[in-house]
Amino acid sequence: MTVTHAIPVTDGTGGRAGARGWVALAVLMLPVLLVSVDNTVLSFALPMISSALEPTSIQQLWIIDAYPLVLAALLVTMGTLGDRFGRRRMLLIGATGFALVSAASAFAPTAGWLISGRAGMAVFGAMLMPSTLSLIRSIFSERAQRRLAIAVWAAMFSAGAALGPIVGGFLLEHFAWGSVFLMAVPVLVPLLVFAPMFVPESRDPDPGRIDPVSIVLSIGAMLPIVYAIKQLAVEGFSATVVVLLVAGVLFGLLFVRRQLRAEIPMLDMGLFRTPAFTGALLVNLLSVIALVGFLFFIAQHLQLIIGLSPMESGLALLPSLVAMIVAGLIVVPLSVRIPPRVLIPAALVFSVAGYVGIGLTTGPDTLWPTIVASVSLGIGIGMAETVSNELILSSAPAAKAGAASAVSETAYELGTVLGTSVIGGFLTAVYRTTIAIPEGVPAHIAAEARETLAGAMNAAGELGGMLGAALRAAAAQAFDAGVGAAALTGAVLVAVAAVIAATTLKGRSTR
Q: Does domain 19-208+264-504 have CATH number 1.20.1250.20?
């Protein structure tokens, strides 16, 4: 096989990246754009998927969560394998597999099929994201350039989130829901063409041996804990939840013990002894929980309560996502002058205010207050994510960029799971316990209405007349009560992130 060598990305001075480094960055933004578009599109496609495949409330959450759950379990493993075998190589393998499985998922005939497809996408997606962030770390060794590159990386996430509802809305209005998965193919084909030309290969010069036991222990720790949280949020406390939590904690302790004893560990636990690394990681985790939880319920609120189409819902969220992009870029020069222990909490004040505003603006006639509140939320998240991601990478040795990036991405994907599980679970629990089914509604229709808001709206359409209108009003009122509880939960999580940043990032200079 002929090996294509990437063109050097430095400008010859040995430190700063030249023009080809920025071209390489542009190429690396393709998978970032795809993943962020995919996450946002799926939230907006969920009502249509629910109507077509008729998933239960558990299956509906699994359609969202199967991807980040499997991804979170594999990220550390894939990041370590990238350090050993080459981060660009892992990127190209992941892109090929992701495109193929996405195309297959587009034609899923059942909810179970779609959940399996999402899990398959996660296996290859776990190869994509750690590779992009760690390759940025290796291309941009000079910190000022790296800070800007990470801001672009974070902005591309936000750009994808902004573009996703619009492109997805257009597709959903003109084609079947499966079209949102077919977007992966035209995005990833250019990556497979240009990455070997412009993106340099990089790896850990002293990666050590592969440790299958550590791989199994890391997966064994992540899967049961996250699944237990999902079950607790949706079904309540049970013996199954206890068993899963105990199993996950046990596997986690064994994993940590093995890493501490290994001469060359799969994951350097010493990273977590650095306050800036651990603090920034927690800020990332809590911010993502708040953001993804917001997207989970706001997409349904805009479409099923206010009555917007998928395209109109995407345009309604566009100002907040543009604000997120702009805030992420504006914070770069500010981070040079203001320490993160001050900058991140100040930024997150905007997000707390946004969540409080969203909790107070329920009902069918609250479009503009919802837009204003979501803009405030986006400003804070955009700033906090950019600064915390840069701190995570800069706190780790360059040789361990893949592992550090994988830990960062694990926090991101775990936050995605917890965002839908915890915040979405709170919303679902409040909805199911407060919905008052009108008298005269048949039992099987009442059961469908209690499952999800989409099920209630479909049932109301089937009933029609005054009874259908009464069921629609009852479902909307119960959902808005759930939004209030979810918004309060999100505000508390963001406030905790601000406190963590103020107390753990002391003395950390960003100069």
A: yes
